[in-house]
Amino acid sequence: MICKHCDSDLIIHHILEDDEIPKMTNGSRIILPKCSICKNQISYTDFTAKINFDKKILLITGTAGAGKTAIGQYIESKSNYIFIDGDAIQKKVNYFARKNSEQKKDYFKDTIETTMILLALGYNVVVGYIINRDTLEYYTDVLQKHGIAPTFRVLVPNRQVCIDRDLKRECWVRVKLL
Questions:
Q1: What pTM was computed for the model?
Q2: Which of 15, 45, 80, 155 has its CA 20 to 30 Å from the CA of residue 173?
């Protein structure tokens, strides 16, 4: 797999994160694969025929506060999977949309394209996102075109666990009721 800008071998010469986008406070990485030599972003269309079919994809979904990020980060820390955090995808897409108002905000398309790039680079992938039925069909349709069947897990924690966790999150604003 060769970079179309500098002819570098992308399997050897790639970086996964972008320093331009502000970091996530939850520790998740913002995955934006680039050539490490010329710094050009790697595109899904550059090598769709070169997807590594023996790699694995794990899709994790659940309610807000269910633990998708915690489980995804744990899997990444203990295995050869790269974790794609849905919140980080949203942050990345929104960041570039603010820079270019013409850019469409398509979080799920960006997630699947990032997944496919990582597979082509030789990584296993775990995605943590709130995935509804229509979105799951979209994911599986795209992946099946490449002969890939993802493993899908739904997290359904105790409701009180979700509420307690949400109350501790920095991103939630606490409002004093009058």
A1: 0.83
A2: 155
